[in-house]
Specification:
282 residues, mainly alpha, MetI-like fold, 2 domains
Length: 282
């Protein structure tokens, strides 16, 4: 028995050391990985004899990036896509949060709306995006609507799960203290549901980028999706790479903002966890 316990303890210590090493060297590891990918890419384009319209070299993509950045093309299209992403994310999160809270508090309402919500997710957003562009014109509104629709469901589910995960004994405590509904929401339900909700927000932040680009690919006169369409039509693959890499940067930036927000809002959890560990060690 002691040998088994010792082996489990060694395995747990090894995992902790590996996790600590990754935290310390994560940035260096990502840099080395990116460098290896670029070198492999350069080698394929140089010795693979591939034409530039199939796979441009990293240097050609970098040159195309500087040219689009210098003439203002990249910024103009990036700002249009970023506006669609931010508005779509905001609308989707607000609608999903309100709807999710109502569903979590009312099982009757959930039983009525759940089949329709689940059925809506069975339809790919790519299938209905052309209809939305036709119905609402290929302007800003249709792109925001598509982005908000793709954000809506994951945030909705996490909101419902987070609100329902609040322990019942804490609800009973708030009720015994004669807390109002607003006080229960502000002091109990929001802090308790926040970790799960922010997990859904991470997913929604990245999906909003997809929604905006899908709308632009269907019909638009500006945006990174529109820029991808131009590059594809002109066989300017380097321009396509520039637009795609810009979208990756936008998605990573939004994801990082959510993580920073999570660290700020959930700082009390880390403090409480450290206090518990100190009490146990003491």
């Amino acid at each position: 028995m002691e040998t088994r316990i010792e082996s489990k303890q060694k395995l747990a210590n090894g995992r902790q050391r590996a996790a600590a090493w990754l935290r310390r060297n994560g940035n260096s590891l990502m840099f080395v990985t990116a460098l290896l990918v670029i070198l492999l890419w350069e080698g394929v384009t140089r010795w693979g004899s591939l034409p530039a319209f199939i796979l441009p070299s990293p240097w050609a993509v970098l040159q195309r990036f500087w040219s689009t950045l210098g003439d203002g093309t990249l910024w103009r299209h990036t700002s249009a896509t970023l506006l669609e992403i931010v508005l779509g994310l905001a609308v989707g999160v607000i609608a999903a949060t309100i709807t999710g809270y109502l569903l979590a508090k009312s099982p009757t309402l959930e039983s009525i709306l759940s089949p329709y919500l689940v059925a809506s997710q069975a339809i790919p957003i790519v299938a209905i995006a052309p209809l939305l562009v036709i119905w609402f014109s290929p302007g800003l509104f249709s792109k925001v609507l598509i982005a908000s629709l793709i954000v809506f469901f994951p945030v909705l589910v996490n909101t419902v799960v987070g609100v329902r995960a609040v322990p019942q004994d804490l609800r009973d405590l708030m009720r015994s203290l004669r807390a109002s509904r607003w006080q229960t929401l502000r002091l109990l339900e929001i802090p308790a549901a926040l970790p799960v909700f922010l997990g859904g927000l991470r997913i929604g932040a990245t999906l909003s980028v997809i929604g905006a680009v899908v709308g632009e690919l269907i019909g638009a006169n500006r945006g990174l999706g529109f820029l991808i369409g131009i590059g594809r039509g002109q066989y300017d693959t380097a321009l396509v790479f520039v637009a795609v890499f810009t979208l990756v940067v936008l998605a990573l930036s939004l994801y990082g903002i959510v993580i920073l927000l999570e660290r700020r809002l959930l700082a009390w959890q880390r403090s409480a966890r450290k206090g518990t560990l100190l009490d146990m060690n003491g």
